[in-house]
Write a structure and sequence with these properties.
The protein is of the alpha+beta class. The protein has a domain of about 110 residues: Beta Barrel (Butyryl-CoA Dehydrogenase, subunit A, domain 2). Helices cover about 50% and strands about 15% of the residues. The chain is built from 14 helices and twelve strands. The strands form four sheets. The protein has a four-stranded mixed sheet. The longest helix is centred in the middle third of the chain and has 38 residues. The termini are far apart. The structure holds flavin-adenine dinucleotide. The site of flavin-adenine dinucleotide has 22 residues, from β1, β4 and α14.
């Protein structure tokens, strides 16, 4: 960490190094990984430890995309080029480790690699979409998802963006908001409906590029100052057929199928934020002395930290198990062989674990700050930056009300079936 004015003692700062955070994390998660996964995590952590000193926290995150891309770290849900060890568990491990190094960088690369990039793997196949995929995965270009609108956030399906069918493609009109990476993006996975009264039957999903005519404006979101989040105007752009990833109606199915891996990827980030902060707090409190002894020896400090460790460790075990099941039953299965019940379970589990991890990441950030005291709100530790990102983890990928709505709906269906 490079801080302007120091209030943290050098010896404590040295112990709070990223390498030590990873050492403590590994003690918690190693048993959950097979040999190949362990090797992947070791290489990823080595990259992060060596790369961290190159990060200037006053600079936007996008300058680091090519470095991530050259190591296959823009995403790891799908195999790309030589980076064949991939899947939801790999992606979650990527999110955990990157968010411990730089949670803002992790947020932006997830929007580019997963939210924008995943449709090129699942619904691509044209030379034009293959090119977009390579540009996004290499980190040479930036991607985003432009789905939410001013009047349609949680109720995203009933969007106002309109699509007009042309002979050789589609014309897109409308404005989207909260587009993470939007103001910096080259590519936008976009949505609109041919008949806005019938979104399920007519929604189109397409890879739109800035040079088709998109314009963007940056929103001010102070908790993530190094990530550009914006308002996106389609401006009647014309998208050729070769860039369409979901024809009318298929766009709707693609949107919902995509939400499951998107939410599971966000889980990785939430867990990384929480491990980042909790382990920083544990090291700091073990070394910081007041009244002649380490503050960790006071139960008012050690018990809440232990209680948070119990919750976070248990949430991590659950999340990684859900990722394994997603890999086994959905990602590596033939689409036609996947039973309806498996789709439904994956939608429920991704929502519940997303909600749980987003919430505990924010709680852990806030509680750890109170336990650590003043130093935790300065730029001397990683805690402030991570706490900022933790404030948006619940709302991105579908807010609290929507995740609980999904679960409540499932309970109601189960009761009806009795
Ligand atoms: C920092 C940030 C980054 C984002 N990035 C992107 C992005 O890259 N691309 C993109 O398309 N979108 C993005 N979003 C949008 C995000 O997905 C939406 O903010 C979210 O879906 C909620 O929509 P809303 O903010 O309009 O809230 P609203 O839908 O207006 O909801 C407001 C409140 O009402 C509750 N609520 C609404 N309906 C119900 C219901 N039926 N039952 C119970 N409670 C309900 C919600 O839970 C919420 O608490 C981002 C948002 C933020 C803040």
């Amino acid at each position: 960490m490079t801080s302007k004015v120091k209030v943290l003692k050098d010896d404590i700062a040295a112990k709070m190094a990223l390498a030590n955070l990873y050492k403590l994390l590994n003690a918690q998660i190693d048993l959950l990984l097979n040999e190949k996964e362990l090797k992947y995590v070791q290489e990823l952590q080595k990259f992060c430890i060596e790369y961290e000193p190159k990060i200037d926290m006053a600079q936007d995150v996008y300058v680091h995309f090519p470095a991530l891309g050259s190591h296959g770290y823009i995403q790891r849900l799908n195999p790309w080029k030589d980076f064949t060890d991939a899947g939801c568990k790999h992606e979650m491990l990527l999110g955990i480790n990157l968010a411990m190094m730089d949670p803002e960088l992790d947020l932006a690369r997830l929007a580019s690699g997963i939210l924008c990039g995943n449709p090129t793997f699942q619904h691509g196949g044209t030379p034009e979409l293959d090119k977009v995929q390579d540009e996004l995965m290499s980190g040479k270009k930036v991607g985003c998802i432009a789905m939410t609108e001013l009047n349609h956030g949680s109720d995203t399906v009933n969007m106002e963006a309109h699509v007009t069918k042309l002979d050789d493609g589609y014309k897109f009109d409308g404005t989207k908001v909260f587009t993470t990476n939007g103001p910096k993006a080259d590519y936008f996975i976009g949505y609109g409906c041919v008949d806005n009264a019938q979104p399920r039957q007519t929604m189109v999903q397409a890879m739109l590029s800035r040079d088709m005519g998109i314009t963007t404006e940056r929103l001010t979101i102070p908790v993530v100052p190094r990530v550009h989040i914006g308002k996106t105007h389609y401006n009647g752009l014309v998208c050729p057929k070769s860039m369409v990833t979901g024809e009318p109606g298929i766009g709707y199915t693609n949107l919902f199928d995509g939400l499951v891996p998107e939410r599971l990827a966000i889980v990785g980030s939430s867990l990384g934020i929480a491990w980042n902060v909790l382990l920083s707090g544990i090291i700091y409190c073990s070394l910081r002395e007041q009244f002649g002894k380490p503050i960790m020896s006071f139960q008012a400090v050690s018990f809440p930290l232990a209680e948070m460790l119990i919750r976070l460790s248990s949430a991590t075990i659950s999340a990684l198990r859900i990722a394994e099941i997603y890999d086994e039953r959905i990602l590596r299965a033939h689409r036609k062989d996947i039973p309806e019940a498996t789709w439904k379970a994956s939608a429920q589990w991704s929502s519940q674990i997303k909600q749980l991890c987003a919430k505990i990441s924010h709680e852990i950030c806030y509680e750890t700050q109170q336990i650590m005291g003043g130093v935790s709100v300065t730029d001397n530790t990683r805690v402030t930056q991570a706490t900022g990102v933790s404030q948006i983890q619940e709302v991105i990928g579908g807010s609290r009300g929507v995740q609980t709505l999904i679960l409540a709906g499932n309970i109601a269906k189960l009761i009806k079936s009795l």
